Amino acid sequence: MMVVDVIRATSTAVMFLEAGAGALWLTASLEAARALRQNGELLAGEVGGLRPEGFDFGNSPREALGAELKGRTLIHATTNGTKAAHKAAQVAREVLLASLLNAPSAVRLAASLGREVAILCAGKEGQVGMDDLYTAGVLAQGLVAEGFEPVGDGVQIALHLAQKPALPVLRASEAALALEREGLGEDVDFCARLGFSERVPRLLERRGEALIFG
Q1: pLDDT digit string, tens, across residues 97-125
Q2: Cα–Cα distance between 72 and 78 in angstroms, integer?
């Protein structure tokens, strides 16, 4: 299963690995993230789009890419994306974190793992997110090219949406508008870069309240 929170959790996770992080521990809450920090791990996440008090990083892919993270462990907790990863891990053996940044590589890896691929869109606080639906459509386009057959109206809607250019769709989403209000609009433009990275965070282990990705 591919998990999508393009603005911004899965995009940021990709950039943490791109910046050299050794592992990503995804938690479903800030409290769990803080409790897991014991041996020099770095905390990353957001509340209302902003970095929580005491955290080393927010949830910005631009910030992540510019960090010195070689071999470090990041504990990552966000409002929507990391929670969606936990939902996926309850029902799927294989879980990948996908975004536009790593879409081509995520498609290739997912296609190599099985005959059926599901895409879980994190959305925004329980509501459908146009940004995630668009990204799901881009991923579905890639899977169709790999020989997979799209099933269901949801996939067809996503495929239709993905025929449009990425940036205008992402900028019109509620997630993007919320970031714009906080002065973080540059993150939206960064998240729209298709194929920027070949890193695909993959679930390696379930450990207590953390999902370990690498």
Answers
A1: 999 999 999 999 999 998 899 999 999 88
A2: 19
With 0-12 CB in 10 A as exposed, 13-18 as middle and 19+ as buried, what is 82?
Answer: buried
Q: What is the DSSP letter of 79?
A: S
The DSSP bridge partners found for residue 192 are: none
Between the alpha carbon of residue 89 and those of residues 1, 96, 138, 205, the distances in Å are: 9, 10, 22, 10
Tell me: the pLDDT tens digits for 140-171? 999 999 999 999 999 999 999 999 999 999 99
Task: Name residues whose C-beta falls within 8 Å of residue 56's C-beta, 6 or more positions apart in sequence.
Answer: 42, 43, 44
Q: Please check whether residue 6 is in contact with residue 196, taking contact to mean a CB–CB distance below 8 angstroms.
A: no
Query: What span, in angstroms and rounded, lies between the C-alpha atoms of 117 and 123?
Result: 19
150: phi then psi, degrees, rounded to nearest 5: -70, 135
- In order of their start, the domains of the chain are 2-213 (3.90.1560.10)
Handedness of CA 2, 179, 194, 166 (dihedral sign): positive
**Alpha-carbon distance 110 to 72, whole Å?**
26
pTM (global) more than 0.90: yes
3-state DSSP helix/strand/coil % of the chain, to nearest 5? 45, 20, 40
DSSP-based three-state secondary structure for 112: helix
What's the angle, vertex CA 57, arms to CA 98 and CA 123, rounded to 5?
Answer: 35
